[in-house]
Amino acid sequence: MNNEDSYIPFIGLEIHIELKTKSKMFCQCSANYFAKAPNSHVCPVCLGMPGALPVPNKQAFEWTMLVGKALNCTINGTSKFDRKHYFYPDLAKGYQISQYDEPFAVNGKVRMQKAEYGIQRVHLEEDTGKLTHSGENTLIDFNRSGVPLVEIVTEPDFHNSDEVKRFLEELQVIIRYLGVSNADMEKGSMRLEPNISLKVKSQKSSFDALRMILSKAEVSKVKSDELPKYKVEIKNINSFKFVKQAIEYEIIRQAEILRKGETPKQETRGFSESKQATYSQRSKEYAHDYRYFPEPDIPPMRFSKQEIEKIAEKVPELPSQKVQRYTEQLKIKLQDALIISKSRATAEYFDAVVKLMPQNAQNVANLIIHKRIKTDVPPEEFAKTARELSTPILTDMTILSEKIIQVIQSNPKVVEDYKSGKHNAIMYLVGLLMREMKGKADAKTVRQELEKAIKT
Q1: Is the pTM value of this prediction over 0.70?
Q2: Does domain 397-455 have CATH number 1.10.10.410?
C-alpha cells in the first residue's frame, strides 16, 4: 500500500472566471484586453489613482447571479462589496474590491451523474494586473486590472484528482452555456486554485461511513471539526491536466510529511509545469489578515424577488439536463449524449434536426459526431441528407454483380477464409463493395448478394 493510501484527501476549489462584459467592473475601460499593448486599456480608476471613484457594472451583477442560479445557489436579496487589503505589485490601490460576508449567491450544488458537490459561494470582484518576470525584472500590465471576476468556492467535497477534473470540465461547459465567459484557460479567463489537505483514515471520526459514501461516488458532507486543521492552496493553474498533476503531487508530498508525525504548513504554493511539482510561495493568509471592511464608495445592493426571478428565467437547459433528456426521452447512448451536449451550439443544432425527424435521434447523433454531414447547413438540409443516407437506393443490380465478381477475384484468400468457416471475413468484402458502390446500395443487400455469389 502506498503511504498516501493511509490518508483521506479533502479538496476544495476556488475557480476564478473573467466575465466577458464590454467594460471593466468599476470603470468604462474596455474589458477586451487580451493581446493588447501593455497598459493601453487603463484609466485613473483601474490604476488606483487617488480620488478616482468606482461605478459598478450592472451587467456583471446579473451575470454573477445567473452563474449562481445555474449552480443551484440561493441568491441573496442583499449584497455588498468589501475592501480586501493586501500589498502586491499587481494591486495598484493596495486593496481589491471584492465580497466578504454578503456575496451574491450561496449554498449551491452541482450534480454529476451519481455525485453531488457543494458550492459554498459565488461572489464578484475585480481582477488584478498581470506580472511578467524577465530575468531580474518584473513588469506590470494593468490592462487586466478591474476586469469583472467571478469566484466560485466549493465545499471540500472532492477526494481525488479525477473527481476534480470531471467537475471542472463540467463547470467550464456550464459557464459557456450561460454565455457569460469564454472560460479559455490558455487566455487566463478561467483559473483554478485547489485547496488540499489530508487526514489519517484511522483517526476516530465518521470515516468508516465516509468511505462507504465515497465507494458509492456520492457527496460526503463532513463537519468542520472533522476536517484537517490545515490546508494548502495551489494558485493560478491554467489547465485541467496541470490541476490533476498538482493535486496528485501534493497528496504524495503531504502524506510524506504526515508520516513523519509533522503537520504540513498552511501555505500558498505554485505549480511548476516542467517539474510537475508544487513549490512554496508564501504562508497562507486567514480572513482577518485581509482587514476586510465594507467598500465605502459603493452602497449595499438590494434585489427584489421579481428581479431575481427574472434572472433565473435566463438560465438555459444545462448540459446535465440535456444528457438526461437525450438518454431518457430520445433513447440515445449516454456517451453520445455527453458528446453532443458538450457544446451548446452543437446541442441546439441537434435538437433542431431531431425536431424534423424525431424517430431517428440516434442516427442524427451518429451523423453529427462522426461528421458524416456538415453542420454548417440549415437543419432542414441536414435532415434531408440524413434521410437519404439512411435509405440508400440500389440503382443498378448489374453494376453490383460486376463489382462482386471483381472483389471475389481480387481477394481469393478472404473468400477461402469465409468458406472454411471464418464467417466474419465476409465483412471485409462487404466494406470493399460499399466503397465501390458509393452509397448506392445498403450493406444488407450487398452481403446477401455476395454470399450468393460465393456459394455458386
Answers
A1: yes
A2: yes
